[in-house]
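Now for our target.
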Amino acid sequence: MSYRVRRAVPADASELLRFLAVASQEAEGSRRLAQALAHGARRCCWVAECGYDIVGVMCIVTRAGVKKPHWLIESIDIDEAHQGRGLTRMLLDAVRAEARLQRVRGLATLCSPKGRGDGDCLLRGQLY
């Protein structure tokens, strides 16, 4: 299987809602998605695709610090059928690449991949 990661766009809304409904997180996912797509300056999502299907989503919240901007990873959702194939890492790499381009100096997380207790395990090491 071949995967592709990209930043979500408003045209992805219906497919993202379908994905989140399948992931049994429709209510919370719909709220996050609506906020992310309506407030692109504060919330952004990246999607992992297999063919034309969305199989993973990572959403971040952007925050402007006093001296440096930082991003907070708010959610990570991976389709169960595609777990264990490095999609969380691929999504995180895409978020880190964009953070570098935007000169973001801090990246933290509120969440963790399913089955892990420590969300910050994703972020060991430097952002750059």
